[in-house]
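Help needed: design a sequence for this.
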């Protein structure tokens, strides 16, 4: 904590700033003590009294016409002083911030009004500051994905299931049936109720083939056997300690609430060259690009003995083969796995940067972040026919309880968000028109109709989604650069351009 004093200055409205003392406090706030001229303060009190007398009926006087001492008698000196401070602060406060060279995070508050010397004391939350330190020296190992035969067979199975013929059934579900379900689940500790704890898997209209060898969570398919459309199930499963899909949930208990909306018999198509050609060259539900997206999202991988050249042969117009389908499945899934690993790698890099960074922010920022998180939670609950008040009542929680529950996640979000923003600037990253053109082209996909492509762009821009797309582009740029730094492949940063010595600036020319 230290003090600064600033000599006499004037506000835009002519108020005199006799002296400003600045104290930087430990909680990333500043205390401004702004001395006032007694005459100016008395004038503000007179104006405040007239303003207050306009709001109340004083016996024997028209509104706004009562003498000062009458207003004091009926309303009180403290109320007049408070109103006078508010009137003066509209001009005084921003002038004091400017003179003290303080960048606030948000509105300040009046902490005290001193009599000798006459002064107003403000407490100001300061804008967050970030020092990433030597972040470019951080290195983390990166292991490329390992591709196995089991993974490719799982990928092929996924394609077959998507193209399968289905028939609704009223019979109880058995292994091999496809079910459409809604899932709500939470991870919880001993003693907690099922609806308490950290959110886990939440899905609506989720289509899932019951298969104990390829399960959502070990034991999940078995819990659904015997269920019929319309059934609601409630059960718990323990996440295995060696789970690769849910590393952060290893060893924890998950409470599931599952509603079954449909049970279907499925007949898988035969895996032959005709089927492979249907998928690769078009006509099937999972043709070409759709297959890429499905398999990447599925997260599988494949180790294949077929030559890579097989895929290239499919591009000459000849019918595709099963061998070529396997190669394509491998390539698509391997790309998806690589993307997932790179995303996790970037997250780990950012976490390492945050851990060593010096990031400071006021309590007001934490409160605003918690408010934002609870607001989003309320919106999600309303989609399920509930609201935040219902949630508090069900869990027997107060506003203070929720604030404490969300404090640590809010701080984590703040630190990562501030670090990411500072990283973007420090790495001299930028979003160009070419970047946005490429993003709109990606959204338009294979559609070559210029009018339709223009319509897609107009839709996003007119719906106010342009900023969202810019954020997505920025996120990818940050992720790519984090990967490059961590693996030692980042480009050198260029020094900011410095004006040549002797060059005349525009302001100097005006002065001259």
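Sure. Designed sequence:
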């Amino acid at each position: 904590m230290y003090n600064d004093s600033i000599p006499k200055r004037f506000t835009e409205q002519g108020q005199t700033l006799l002296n400003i003392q600045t104290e930087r406090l430990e909680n990333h706030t500043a205390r401004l003590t702004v001395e006032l001229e007694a005459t100016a303060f008395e004038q503000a009190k007179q104006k405040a009294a007239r303003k207050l007398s306009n709001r109340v009926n004083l016996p024997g006087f028209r509104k706004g016409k009562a003498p000062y001492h009458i207003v004091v008698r009926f309303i009180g000196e403290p109320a007049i002083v408070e109103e006078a401070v508010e009137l003066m602060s509209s001009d005084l406060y921003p002038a004091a911030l400017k003179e003290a060279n303080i960048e606030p995070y948000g509105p300040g508050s009046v902490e005290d009004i001193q009599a000798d010397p006459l002064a107003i004391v403000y407490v100001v939350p300061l804008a967050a500051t970030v020092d990433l330190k030597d972040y470019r020296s951080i290195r983390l190992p990166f292991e490329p994905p390992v591709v196995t035969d089991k993974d490719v067979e799982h990928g092929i199975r996924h394609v077959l299931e998507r193209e399968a013929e289905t028939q609704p059934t009223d019979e109880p579900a058995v292994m091999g049936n496809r079910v459409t379900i809604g899932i709500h689940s939470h991870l919880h500790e001993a003693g907690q109720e099922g609806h308490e704890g950290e959110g886990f898997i939440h899905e609506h209209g989720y289509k899932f083939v019951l298969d104990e060898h390829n399960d959502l969570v070990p034991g999940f398919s078995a819990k659904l056997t015997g269920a019929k459309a319309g059934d609601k199930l409630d059960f718990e499963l323990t996440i295995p300690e060696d789970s690769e899909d849910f590393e952060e949930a290893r060893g924890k208990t998950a409470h599931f609430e599952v509603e079954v909306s449909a049970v279907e018999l499925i007949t898988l198509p035969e895996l032959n060259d005709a089927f492979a050609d249907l998928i690769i060259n078009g006509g099937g539900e999972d043709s070409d690009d759709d297959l890429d997206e499905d398999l990447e999202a599925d997260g599988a991988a494949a180790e294949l003995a077929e030559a890579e050249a097989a895929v290239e042969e499919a591009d000459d117009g000849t019918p595709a083969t099963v061998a070529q389908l396997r190669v394509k499945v491998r390539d698509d899934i391997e790309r998806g796995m690589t993307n997932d690993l790179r995303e996790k790698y970037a997250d780990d890099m950012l976490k390492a940067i945050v851990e060593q960074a010096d990031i400071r922010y006021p309590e007001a920022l934490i409160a605003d972040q918690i408010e934002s998180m609870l607001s989003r939670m309320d919106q999600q609950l309303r989609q399920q026919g509930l609201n935040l008040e219902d949630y508090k009542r069900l869990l027997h929680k107060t506003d203070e309880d929720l604030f404490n529950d969300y404090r640590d996640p809010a701080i984590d979000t703040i630190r990562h968000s501030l670090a990411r923003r500072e990283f973007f600037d420090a790495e001299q990253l930028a979003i160009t028109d070419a970047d946005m053109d490429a993003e709109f082209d990606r959204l338009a996909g294979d559609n070559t109709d210029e009018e339709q492509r223009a319509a897609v762009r107009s839709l996003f821009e007119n719906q106010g989604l342009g900023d969202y797309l810019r954020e997505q582009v920025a996120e990818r740029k940050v992720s790519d650069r984090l990967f490059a730094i961590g693996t030692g492949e980042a480009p050198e940063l260029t020094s900011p351009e410095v004006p040549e010595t002797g060059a005349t600036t525009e302001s100097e020319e005006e002065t001259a």
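The chain has three domains: 3-127, 149-344, 354-486.
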